Write the structure tokens for this entry.
Amino acid sequence: MSEAIESVLNETRKFPPPSDFAAQANISSEEQYQQMWTRAKEDPAGFWGDMAANLDWFKKWDTVLDGAMPNTKWFVGGKINLSYNCLDRHLLGPNKNKAAIIWEGEPGDTRVLRYQDLHREVCKFANVLKKLGVQTGDRVTLYMPMIPELAIAMLACTRIGAIHSIIFGGFSAEAVADRNNDAQAKLIVTADAGWRRGKEVFLKSAVDASLEKSPSVQKVVVVRRTGSPVEMVPDRDYWWHDLMKDVSAECDPVQLDAEHPLFILYTSGSTGKPKGVLHTTAGYLLGATMTSKWVFDLKDEDTYWCTADIGWVTGHSYVVYGPLANGATTVMYEGAPNWPDEGRFWELIEKYRVSIFYTAPTAIRAFVKWGDDWPNRHDLSSLRLLGTVGEPINPEAWMWYHKIIGQERCPIVDTWWQTETGGIMISPLPGITPTKPGSCTRPLPGVVPDIVTKDGQTVPGTNGGLLVMKQPWPSMLRTLYGDHDRFVQTYFSEIPGAYFAGDGARRDEDGYYWVMGRVDDVLNVAGHRLSTMEVESALVSHPRVAEAAVVGFPHDLKGEGICCFVSLKGLDGDDALKKELIAHVRKQIGALATPDQIRFAAALPKTRSGKIMRRLLRDIAAGREKTQDTTTLEDYNVLAKLRESDE
Ligand code: PRX
């Protein structure tokens, strides 16, 4: 990790919020922002105590903030239920018959669930869970396509205080088994399959394979989505539609402690197995609720669409919980953006008159590549606000988004946050913040970031350094499930007294933040965090592999591609073995970890002390000229051989 991180970006364009947007915005003046931000910094308990009035409580808390980082508790003594806040409270007024979820499947089938409908389905499924033996505090794995039943299952868990752990449908059976085991999940909800680019992604068969290795799971609930045949094991596997037939639609929400565990979401770190990020009820919900209101400027009449899969944190906070807590209408789409053609997203925006659209830079780069003609064929005049998340956005992709999708009318919110932060941390407020392409701009109220050196000193001027948070916030993770030491070690030991995000960033003369990417061994592939270590372990588990080093390299569409340097046991490798290794990684982790390049080498370049020279490998992977001194290379031939193996 280098002390000073150099920035090569020199972006000077600036876009003030359109005046008509500013006039109606939820946060509508710079003074209001300054006042909120300063209050939250100086009196966090007072500020967040006031904000918590946006939620409905069964019992008010005694203490807003208890303890200091890393061990903080929020709203201690308070009693609350998340599903009550996302559903029941909206049934008391005109939102009762409002669309909560507008869903479209990839084949074009649609469903609209009004708040009343969603409430009924959630209560019924909560009763199903109880009937199958799930109790408050039990872990439930959800491994499902983007169908309404996923949102229903999540909310049903929160209704009874079961802790959900959602696994993205692109993960393999092995990954599902690991996560089931780590969480000691009792029940799993899945589907026969889901649709993706016209093909079925089989989920139930992966669950069957995973259960051979994760015996804690006693029951499986299966949604029939595509109608593909599946094997049902008696007394273990149940169809969703059978179970839902004869349960009551009445289910009182359990009055849970504010700090009751809400969900676990596994994410990659630089070392070891995936980390089970644990969020708790009230703080997380408050973060998701307030940031949705501030950043997406949610209004009663909005039709809001976040394209993220619910298997990632963006889907948790901004497809389901944030919008529903605000009584908004959230659009959910099952499939790919280029099915049946590259105009699918724009067709959906036109069809549902979407007003707020939130997607990822990797998707925007694909749209740019597919050409302006696709969006230009559709009426996008309903849009009023655009957002991005997941990785730094290239200024040119930002400009395209601004011009072609936003038609120079819509502010863009570039939102920086993480699985661990629960909600958006640094982002423009669309009514007041002039935006700069590529910058996530300024911290939200309650967020106190800094850019520091390795010893925790604030970096002077506009130089790059490590991004940290100096003050706790309600929606921060509370621990890593079952491993509190690793939690403290990962986030709070690098920079004493602060939360270390793992990102490098700089702050410009206007106080705007520019995130420059990860400084640890974590890849950001198409906006998904992957640890180089996990891919290396997957490779080394193949009998022919002696040693592997995995690095990222710049990739036009995915942001970062995966390059694997592999030294073999015995004979030289060939193309067939490359294919086999790629398939092996996919089997171990899932399609999202598919290597882009496999390069064989007699040995990996190491320093005299035996550390793999990752910077050198990164340069080779990117095809850059070798710039640094390689005199410490153990074997110069290794380098020559690696270069030769260039595909
Ligand atoms: O490196 C940052 C990048 O994504 C990481 C968090 O990944 P994950 O936990 O999977 O959550 C993604 C969705 C919240 C961060 O450490 N990242 C996320 N948003 C941005 C970003 N980098 C730059 N700009 C962003 N807006």
Summary: The domain at 83-254 is CATH 3.40.50.12780 (Rossmann fold). The pocket of adenosine-5'-monophosphate-propyl ester is lined by residues 267, 313-314, 389-392, 414-419, 440, 501-503, 515, 517-518, 524, 529 (CB under 6 Å).
